[in-house]
Design brief:
By secondary structure, this protein is mainly alpha-helical. Helices cover 53% and strands 0% of the residues. It has 5 helices and no strands. The longest helix has 39 residues. The N and C termini lie far apart (86 Å).
């Protein structure tokens, strides 16, 4: 026998009806503005004495380094990439030279010639590019630390240009002031060419780390 009180008719109450005020309970308040940090801090292993004593609520700010990576981190990254690039390019050149200048067509002699030329040219190119990257990163970090852009006016950013010029001059300083000046100009021109290439390709300057 069916129960006539079930359903939505007048004889019974709908179990999904929200009009019954006796069963309605208010939703909990998830507003955390009234929570005191000194009350919940011990539960997370934080001493209440280490909390700020300011009674007014203030926003919390995360530390953010707007200047990016430090000098040492940039120096390691640039020198490692430059060294590997130099070893690869020097090794390819050494492979070509080893095959072209082998004194014999025998396999062992040819292999020995290739290994000698690859090692010689690869290490030389890798050391040169690695040392150049270290000098460039150091001078660029010094320029950023002293905020050189405040004194150069429309020449922005001046740090890469300064680093390129000083790197070339420092690398060839033992050859005399004339050669050092020429090398500094070449270094500055190389950095300027890189910026021009970035502008043509639509890439933000120094977005790749160099």
């Amino acid at each position: 026998m069916s129960n006539s009180n079930l359903g939505t008719g007048s004889g019974g109450a709908n179990p999904y009806d929200d009009n019954d005020s006796s069963t309605n309970t208010p939703l909990p308040d998830f507003n955390a503005s009234s929570i005191q940090l000194s009350t919940i801090a011990p539960a997370f292993g934080i001493a209440s004495s280490s909390l700020p004593s300011v009674t007014t609520s203030q926003p919390d700010y995360l530390d953010y380094d707007q200047k990016g990576r430090g000098i040492v981190s940039t120096m390691f990254t640039n020198s490692g990439i430059s060294y590997m690039l130099g070893v690869s390019l020097g090794g390819l050149y050494g492979l070509r030279e080893g095959l072209a200048k082998t004194p014999s067509s025998r396999w062992k002699v040819k292999l020995n010639s290739v290994l000698n030329h690859c090692g010689r040219h690869g290490s030389s190119a890798g050391n040169m590019l690695g040392a150049t990257a270290i000098l460039y990163s150091l001078y660029e970090g010094v320029a950023d630390n002293f905020e050189l852009d405040q004194y150069t006016g429309p020449i922005q950013p001046p740090a890469p240009l300064f680093a390129g010029a000083m790197t070339g001059a420092t690398y060839y300083m033992r050859a005399g002031p004339r050669v050092a000046t020429l090398a500094g100009a070449i270094g500055m021109g190389a950095v300027g060419g890189t910026f021009a290439l970035y502008s043509i390709l639509g890439i933000p300057s120094a977005s790749k780390g160099w």
